[in-house]
């Protein structure tokens, strides 16, 4: 087993020698503070930013524009040591503009008790599909609190790819049967750190311990490549042709192309590090969701694993943090998990 993991590790490192050809932005070029302003600390050169969580508040930032399709990426270093109950989220959403029909693409890092590694999940929602979570959960082949790694979300009209460094870890290919569940409206990029004591670690059993505060996450080498659009929903929706050139350009980028080599890296990652996939959760979804590509080997493992369902939402926290009065539906998933 150790040998196999060493091999997998080397495979990922090999792939990571290539880096995406992207243009990085300073904080002020692309982003604005979102909440917990005192806990958002820019570096003197303006090219990196720290988001802190202390007993008073978390913090977050948002892209200054909304984008209709794009590549959203940052190098991130997570808080170390005791991080139970903490969530660091890097995601796209338009929930502030389309309250009942929002779209969302998530990378959410879930803290853990001391000595246990960080885990994370990816998810997507389209047109308000909050009762149909599409979570996958994974561990990592490195300690994300020790150094920066690049995490990315690519969203095109045809597919969505989540990346860790240059390794694609999940691809969702658009499928007509998904209908509105495939994100289609302009979204902003969000990065947040917040207290998710109620669900993040072992279904809420382990809460944030503020003796270890402040918890610090760091973001640098920020990338936003895509089609900035008017956030006004009426104008944006009445003219969807304006982004076709950028969409075509996105398809030519290196991060939009999964080579045979990176496809095998994705397969290996999923074999070794994915420990939950909604596609195999037949209790939750007796009918397999239309975009799921069932891999017989994966299916075998997940059938045998007996893993429980889980869930949660950062929307509730965001609402509190920003003192919003609106209520937004949250997913109706059990918060049970016994995955570690
Ligand atoms: C990187 O991308 C830019 C466009 O953003 C392009 O002009 C340049 O040739 C690319 N460089 C490489 C090495 O592919
Ligand atoms: C999105 O949801 C609304 C109802 O909330 C529905 O009227 C509309 O047709 C849906 N759009 C798509 C593309 O499915
Ligand atoms: C939509 O965008 C295209 C390209 O920018 C423009 O030529 C056209 O006039 C726009 N249509 C409307 C209704 O705004
Ligand atoms: C949520 O789940 C509970 C328990 O499974 C169920 O009783 C309830 O009807 C569900 N609510 C919605 C809105 O689906």
From TrEMBL:
Species, as recorded: Hibiscus trionum (Flower of an hour)
Protein name in the entry: Xyloglucan endotransglucosylase/hydrolase
Single Gene Ontology BP annotation: xyloglucan metabolic process
Pfam families membership: Glyco_hydro_16, XET_C
Main EC class the enzyme belongs to: transferase
GO molecular function, one term: xyloglucan:xyloglucosyl transferase activity
Annotated signal peptide: 1-18
EC number, UniProt record: 2.4.1.207
